[in-house]
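Attaching the record inline, Q. Sequence:
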Amino acid sequence: MVERSVVDPLEIARWQFGITTVYHFLMVPLTIGLGIVVAVMQTAWHRTGKDEYLRMTKFWGKLFLINFIMGVATGIVQEFQFGMAWSEYSRFVGDVFGAPLAMEALLAFFVESTFLGLWIFGWDRLPKRVHLATIWCATLAATLSAYFILVANSWMQHPVGTEIVDGRAVMTDAWAVFTNNTAMVTFPHTIFGAFAVAGGFLLGISWYHLYKRRSAGIDSVDANGRVIIGESATLGKNRDKTDYNVWIKSLRIGSAVALVSFLGVAFSGHAQAQLMFEQQPMKMAAAEAACHDGTGFSVLSIGDLSSPGKTTCDDMVAVWELPGLLSFLAHNDFTTEIKGVNTLVPEYQEKYGTHIPNDPMYGDRAGTEIDYVPVMAVTYWGFRLMITLGGLSAVAAGVALWLTRKGTVPQSKWLSRLALFGMLAPFGANSAGWIFTEMGRQPFVVAPNPSFEGIDQVFMYTAAAVSPGVSAGEMLFSLIALTLVYAVLLVVEVVLLTRYIRGGVGSAMPELTEHPDDKHKKDDDVLSFAY
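Structure, as predicted:
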């Protein structure tokens, strides 16, 4: 057997795809959640005619567009990576993925982009009802396109409606693929997660502007702590009473959305976890660092998470365990024992073998021993980070509603900063959940379906998925290049978002702060095309 290079193209390819995908996924939930919230705001303006809803639509719509543009720019790279770095994977899943990815492309790049363009350029040009319909069509298309992406990903987690023909997965039942029970629970979990991101985004930015009004002396409170709304003579409409309504309503909407989303995430996550226990038991055992069979949920375990071993992980000890909770998560009871790593490893070895097959497609990885235990440091802490950050986001939303019950935020710089930094929590929860889902599937890029019987089971080892003709040097170059490009895009997005957030509604509606001698400034706006 040929000795493998110190620099493994497979590991570099995984890092490359992980970095670009996680970065892109930062934009996805905000685009989906914030887009629908903006559509609701415009609907409120259309029905009531109140100026604050128009301002809310314009301001949050501007931030939505910045994020959408960056999402498109970073998402395109994903398509190319399938062919360049993962050609064997693309060849294996191509027949199955063709349908959902084609549907996603049609919706994302035709329906979504077309109607979003009509919304951007249609202000004061299209009838109000038609213009309102365009934002709804664009955002609902974005949500539907997410469903088709999740259909494809769910097939990797739980392949159905397929058989192996000449070494490739061939779709035999399109309905089974599109109604995969894994997709049915993953989709609502993802959408609720997107709304949680949007809710936290509204909360943090609205808190910042209400605090700025307080610190500038525009708003104050009476003896009972109730807000006294003021206006700024120098800032004009950008800090008038309507501006106050923009931020207090946005904060309350964001807090309500975040709280409802947390409940949705919790219930849909419970359903998803039950399927994982059934479909990918090793992933859930690794998420618990559960070496042995048991019923308790480990709040905290100690031991060597980085190297659990291929056949045992006896050194893991639960320091704080909630009895019966793991059984409840899996089976809705408190007594059914859940298989641990030491029980599952022999079962996996019996079903799928102990070594990578001696097949040319595996190159110098052929014959190497298979480690069926994913990296516990990632699965264990990723699972807990997802839950912790999601819970903190919900608590923050509840606290925000309580602290603003009298109409404004406390005049505290530290609370204002905490509210801004708190926006990162739902982003972190979404990313941690995604990383846990994907890393926990290893060593499979297409996980086996336990319900399939016989030798024709549909699965693929990650070791077989990487492009055989791409060298470690080429992969390393693309990793460094893409990481640098994405870092630049990150700086651009943060700068743009910061600029428009600080500018308030006036950054999206220059007419609120425009003086007769400043009409040329609108043309200097890099996003002046956006209404």
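The chain has a mean pLDDT of 85. The longest helix spans residues 9-48.

More tomorrow.
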